[in-house]
Amino acid sequence: MATEHPSPALRAPASSRPYAKARPGYGKRTASGQRASQAADFALMPERERYVAGYVDRLPDGAAMDIKSLAKSLPLYGQMAVSSALKALGVAGHLRRVRCQTGEGEQVRWVSRTYWSRTARDNEWWDAFLTTEGSSPAPEATPAPPSTDTDPQAPVAASPQSAATSPAAPPEPAPQRTGVTSEPVAASVTHPAPTPPAVPEQRTHGAAQVAPSPAYLALAQLGRADARLALSAADCRVLEPLAAAWFSRGVDADYLTQALTAGLPAQVDSPVGLVRRRLADKLPPQLTSSTGPATAVTRGRRLLAECTECGRPGTPEALPDGLCRGCRTAASDTTPTAPAGPPAERDVHALVGQLRELTRLP
C-alpha cells in the first residue's frame, strides 16, 4: 500500500523584479577604474546607505537612478530615505549627478546621468574625471550589426521590394522529351506562368527618385498637430518655399510646428492663409557668421555637475562632495552638537513663591 505524503510540493522561487530602465542617454553610468566586487563592500557605512549602495552597485548601465524608481524597487525605504541615502553616498564619494549635452547639429539635448563608483573617490578625482568626460567626444549610437549565424552558402530569400525592382530572371529551358507527351506536360505548356507587368515597376522607380523636402513634411504634419491647420497637398506645395526659408535659418520641424500652432483662434476659416501670414510674420532672424555653425557648439560633450540634494547645476569644482553651497551650509547647521551639561539645580521653593506673588498682582 502506497504511503501518501501530506507535505505540499516546494514552491518555485519568485522571479526577481526587473529593474527600471531609463530613457536612452539617461540613467546610471559606471565610472572608470572599478575594482572587483567584494563581500566587504560598503561595510563601514550605516545600514540604510549600505542597503541602497548594494542595490545600485548591481544595476547595469542605463538603469533608472531617480528617487522614485529606486524607492519602488527598494521595499524597506521610501523616497525621503532613498534621497538621504543618495546624498550620503555622494558625500562619501560613490556617486555624482551630472547634466550632459548630447547630439549634433540641431538635434541637441541635455540628459541627466548618475556616475557611480564602487570605490570611494575624493573630490579631486571626481573633478578630473568629470572634466575629462566633458571634454571627450560624445559616443554615437551605432546600429547593431546583422546576425552572422546563418550559413554563408545558404541561399538568401529575396525581399518583395528587391524582387519587384530587379529584372526578371530568364526562364529555364524546358527539357526536351521524346515520344508521346503526357497530359501534365501538355497542361503546363498550355497555361504558362504569368509574368509581372512592367508598368508598376516603372512608376515605383520614378516615385522613389523624388523625395519630399523637410519643409513639405513639416507643413503636411500641421494637421496632425492641430486639426485647425489641416493643409492639402496643393497648399503644402505653395507654402513650401516659405517654410524652406525657416529651415535655412537653422530651425527644425518641431520649432516650426510650435510657432505655427501657438495661440490659434477658436475657429480658422482659411488654414492656408493663416499659415502663409505666420510664415511671413514670424520668420526667425538670420544668424550672423560670428556665431559659427551650430555644430561648432557640440564638438565636445558639455557636462555640468548637479547638486545631489537640490539638483542645482554647476561646475564640478563648485560642488565638492556633490553638494552646492546652500546645501552644505544647511547640512552643517543641522549637525548635532555635543549635549550640554546637566542644568543647574534651582530653588523650587523660591520659584513657587515668585509664581504666587505674580498671581496676587492686579
Structure description:
With 362 residues, the protein is an alpha+beta fold. Among the domains are: 109 residues, Arc Repressor Mutant, subunit A (Orthogonal Bundle); 70 residues, no CATH class. It is 38% helix and 8% strand. It is built from 14 helices and five strands. It has a five-stranded mixed sheet with strand order 1-3-2-4-5. A hairpin with a 2-residue loop joins strand 2 and strand 3. Helix 1 crosses helix 3. The chain starts with 26 loop residues before the first strand and ends with a helix. About 19% of the residues have low confidence.
Give the end-to-end Cα distance, rounded to a whole number of Å.
101 Å
Total count of strands:
5
| Low-pLDDT segments, ≥5 res | 138-170, 178-189, 199-208, 289-300
What pattern of helices and strands is seen along the backbone? EHHHEEHHHHHHHHHEEHH
Radius of gyration: 36 Å
CATH architecture group name of the domain at 27-135: Orthogonal Bundle
Q: Which structural class should the secondary elements be placed in?
A: alpha+beta
Mind summarizing the main beta sheet? 5 strands, mixed
The top-level CATH class of the domain at 27-135 is Mainly Alpha
The helix count comes to 14
Task: Describe the global form.
Answer: extended
- CATH topology group of the domain at 27-135: Arc Repressor Mutant, subunit A
